Inverse folding.
């Protein structure tokens, strides 16, 4: 069983507004909804990891069945790893590893094929056609205890991937992390 995690709790400071709640005129959809549709098609359950400021808005625009989480103690506002910790905390046994397909909301153009390619191997992240690594698009197996241990040492996603011995999986797509409004 693979669980989807949507990273939707960032500050979006370079973007200028909440990326998760950005309505894309091209797709006629909010970015968080695009991510939800993609992960729901590939996983058994999807956790949307937002923040205290956007939690209610996320609940309002997502399907009623969507599970919206926020960072939880003791790892609040530690970047993407806080979201992973919140999702892993849903598993009652902190030592049982779970498969997660992870997607940040700021990849509205990512193809279903690229996400499917990640599911072919555990502990991998996306590397695009330009050989650029995308650490917040990944398929990882971890447990809450892994994150508890790791977050006492580092808060960087790249370092957590190295800790899990994650490898890049090539996607035959140019992938863009949308950090600004210009496309």
């Amino acid at each position: 069983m693979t669980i989807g995690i949507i990273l939707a709790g960032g500050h979006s400071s370079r973007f200028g507004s909440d990326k998760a709640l950005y309505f894309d005129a091209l797709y006629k959809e909010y970015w968080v909804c695009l991510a939800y549709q993609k992960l729901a098609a590939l996983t058994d359950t999807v956790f949307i990891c937002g923040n205290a400021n956007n939690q209610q808005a996320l609940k309002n625009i997502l399907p009623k069945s969507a599970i919206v989480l926020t960072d939880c103690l003791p790892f609040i506002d530690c970047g993407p790893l806080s979201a992973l910790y919140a999702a892993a905390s849903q598993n009652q046994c902190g030592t049982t590893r779970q498969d997660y397909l992870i997607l940040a909301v700021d990849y509205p153009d990512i193809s279903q094929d690229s996400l499917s390619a990640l599911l072919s191997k555990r502990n991998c992240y996306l590397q695009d056609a330009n050989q650029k690594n995308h650490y917040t698009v990944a398929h990882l197996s971890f447990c809450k205890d892994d994150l508890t241990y790791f977050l006492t040492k580092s808060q960087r996603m790249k370092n957590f991937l190295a800790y899990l011995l994650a490898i890049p999986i090539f996607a035959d797509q140019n992938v863009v992390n949308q950090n600004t409004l210009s496309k």
